[in-house]
Amino acid sequence: MAKPAFTLPVLAATYVGLTQALFPPMVLFDVGTGASVFFPLVGASIAVTWIGGPWMCLAIFVTTALEHPFSPEQYLHVSRHVLAYGGLGLLLRRRQVNPLSLTARDAGFILVGIGLAGAASAGFVTLHLGVLHALPPDHLADTLLSFWVGDAAGGILAVTGFAALFRLITSSGQSVVSHRDEAPHMVGFALAALLGLIGLAFALKALSDLLTLSAHVWFLLSLAACGAAFWTGPIIGTLSAVTVNALTVCLFPKAMQSLPILDVQLHMLAVGAAALLIGAARNDHRRSIRTLTEREHRAQALARRNELYAHALRSIPVAVTIQDAAQPGEPLFSNSAFDALDIPVPFIGSTDLPLSGQDMRLERSDGSKRDIRVQVAPVRGSQQDVVGIVCVYRDETDDLARMRAEKESERMRALGYLAGGIAHEINNLLHPIQNLAYAVGQQGGVLTEQQHRLLSIIQQCAIQAGTVVHPILNYTRTAKQERRRLNIAEAIRDSMAMVSRGLSPAIAPQVDIADGPASAMISPVEMTQVLTNLVINAAKAVESNTAKARIKVHGHLVVNGDDVSYRLTVSDNGCGMDRETLSRVFTPFFTTRADVGGTGLGLTIVRNIVSEWGGTVEVNSSPGNGCSVILTFPASPA
Amino acid sequence: MPTVLVIDDQEAVRLSLRISLEAAGYDVREAADGDAAMSIIHAEPVHAVVTDLWMPGMDGVQFLRELRRLRHEAVVIAITGGGPGMTIGAAGALAKTWGADELLMKPFDNRILVQELDRSLRA
After folding, report:
1. Do the Cβ atoms of A532 and A494 come closer than 8 Å?
2. What's the CATH number where B38 sits?
3. Quick check: A477 contacting B, CB < 8 Å?
4. Nearest-Cα residue of chain B relative to residue A463
5. What are the residue boundaries of the structural domains of chain A, listed by start?
6. Å between B57 CA and nearest CA of chain A
């Protein structure tokens, strides 16, 4: 706990102010010459050194310096005070006792400490008085004992109250309730202590003298103080005992003075000590119940939390295992997603850590192979050593297969485009050769038989060349994907998942696809090709202003009587196109991005694929107003 | 005499078609691309259109689309020698989508074309 720098001076000043204020009323507690029944300054000294530490001993000296700045005798006198009570405070400090929740053991410690401190002070006083005053021995003994008992009463009765006050100053408002686990049921011990002290008072014949009329009342009040202490704890108990003692001294001064000083003091000491002990025991008992309940609550909360963690970990839709670093290859934990993968846990030694990602080919129990990407992270213990290994698995088999198929399809398509272009040129030459040769032959009469034969050969060659070229045009059909009836929304979502991977998150397309049973005869690879081309075009159009970029993929079923079609729109808010560009978008090899690798085949591919689905492609755009490409193709509502 | 508009960017193709069609008694108009063809469509009555699908400028598909937009009732025969990406399947699908009555793959015998036109226009 960080204490503000001014805390200790404030504490010292409070102590000095308190002792100065309390000193005059002390006279009230004097039941004989130099013998007080309650000397609270002792409690204040113990409390201030307990809470404030060794520096507070100086504050005790300050109180003397304020009253008798030039009296060496007084400094000697206060030295034994500092040694005895300051020392006890420091002892308590070593034990780190919490004054607001004093346990019976703490209270016992205080009592023993006060006894020892009293004995020490008695020694000092003996020395002091013996040397300086040479008093008769019996008087000396009587006075010393009175001092001793009065100081002890002050210590016992005041120490908890003052300590609480000083702790309040130093605690900066933080809770001072501790949770030490002490043995409960100290009430019996406290009651035994009370009986013992009363027995001690009997032995000193104090009780028989006190059972006069006025003292009788006092005794009942004393019992009330004990009762209050019993129910409320050490602080209220202490305050009650102090009040009872103060009232007794004030209300029955004559009775007090008529009785032997020591007897009165001992009895008061017994009341105070009992109040302290019983209060502490009661507090102890209550706290142990509270501690037990809190511990149960904490245990329950912990169990709940652990259960939640376990469930959450098991339900994460990503395959996860946790391995003990000491036994890699044997998972401590695997979640449902991992179990569903049906693959063995790969051996990853802690020396391999950390792995950002590793591709592994693992075999399932049915013998099939899966391509798995494994990401590994070390679990570090409190010493930063690797105690466990967390692995996250991603099955990329289907994605890889799809990517391979797509790549192959792209390759075939590109080849087809090249072949198609060559075939076009050849066919366009063959056509006039074939037909013009025929036309020449029809111009009757002019040609010889031989010339007719030659023209016929030219014609036949052209026809034959055509039959050679035609399969080239059909060749690209091998790139055509197997089409089957697919759920359109699913096909679009799957494709978009692939397409979006290649895009910067800033321009991630907003996909708005109506769910439903709509289906069409399409192939997933073709859908991906269509969307890849359209979304890449859109991304290129918005790349100059990604901050405001918006790419939308919107699809829904259009039912017009018996005519059911699906309308898929890919739109952007990019730079748009002028009329000239727009009129050529479907022209193969026409591109405005030749410098950045545009092939000019994108929309041609889209149109050809959609045509093969039996659909149409429409492009709407104007400069600065973005572009929208609308695909409409036959669909079925089921 | 029915008028046939022949659209092809290859002059030799146009010539061979003109000879065959004129021999069959058709009046022939020629255009090298969709834009030129559109001008003729707007200028005079055309009973049949023979158009290539893949040409520079306004290509055959765009021309056909424009023709459908105008609700022109000419008989349309698409002809193609293929092209980049223009498979026989794609060409067929495009021709069908945009309302061509027939698709012929080059090189073809012009007599087949004449037969088709005769069947459609003189039936």
Report:
1. no
2. 3.40.50.2300
3. yes
4. B107
5. 7-174+183-293, 319-395, 409-479, 484-634
6. 7
Give B61's contacts in chain A (Cβ within 8 Å). 586, 607
CB contact under 8 A, A432 and B54: no
Sequential DSSP letters for A132-185: HT---HHHHHHHHHHHHHHHHHHHHHHHHHHHHHHHHHHTTT----------S-
Q: Which CATH architecture has domain A484-634?
A: 2-Layer Sandwich (3.30)
Asked if A435 and B86 come within 8 Å (Cβ–Cβ), the reply is: no
Count CB atoms within 10 A of the CB of residue B118. Answer: 14
Of B16, B20, B85, the CB nearest to A420: B85
- Which residue has tokens 């469509």? B41
Q: Which amino acid is at A39?
A: F
Written in H, E and C, the secondary structure of A417-449 is: HHHHHHHHHHHHHHHHHHHHHHHHHHCCCCCCH
Question: Which residues in chain A touch residue B56, judged by CB atoms under 8 angstroms apart?
Answer: 587
Distance from CA of B61 to the nearest CA of A (A): 9
Structure tokens at A466: 């055509």
How far is residue A113 from each of residues A146, A239, A332, measured CA to CA in Å?
18, 20, 55
Is A474 near chain B, with CB under 8 Å? yes
Chain A interface test: which of B52, B87, B105, B114 (most A C-beta within 10 Å):
B87
Residue A381 in 3-state DSSP? Answer: coil
CA distances, A386 to each of A220, A306, A334, A358, A599 (Å): 68, 22, 19, 20, 52
For residues A458 and A433, give the distance between their C-alpha atoms in angstroms, rounded to a whole number. 7
Preferred mutation among A461, A608, A630, A631 to probe B, highest tally of B CBs within 10 A: A608
- Domain of residue B115: give its range: 3-122
CB contacts of A426 in chain B (<8 Å) are: 81
Whole-number pLDDT of residue A193 = 57
pLDDT band at A231 (very low <50, low <70, confident <90, very high): low
Closest CA to A157 of A265, A79, A257: A265
- Show which of residues 403-462 on chain A sit within 8 Å of chain B, judged by CB atoms: 413, 416-418, 420-421, 423-436, 438-439, 442, 462
Cα distance between residue A37 and residue A244, in whole Å:
12
Q: Which residue carries 């111009």 as its tokens?
A: A443
- B50-95 pLDDT, tens digit per residue, is 999 888 777 788 888 888 888 888 999 999 888 776 777 777 777 7
Strand order of the β-sheet with A331-334 is A331-334, A319-324, A386-395, A369-380, A355-363
CB proximity under 8 Å: A 275-334 to B: none
- Give the total number of structural domains in chain B: 1
Q: Are A139 and A117 in contact (CB under 8 A)?
A: no
Residue B91, judged by CB atoms within 10 A of its CB (0-12, 13-18, 19+), counts as buried
| CATH class as words, domain A319-395 | alpha beta
Give the pLDDT of residue A593.
65
Distance from CA of A499 to the nearest CA of B (A): 22
Write the ipTM. 0.90
Q: What is the pLDDT of residues A443-453, one digit of tens each?
A: 767 788 888 88
Does A431 sit within 8 Å of B107, measured CB to CB?
A: yes
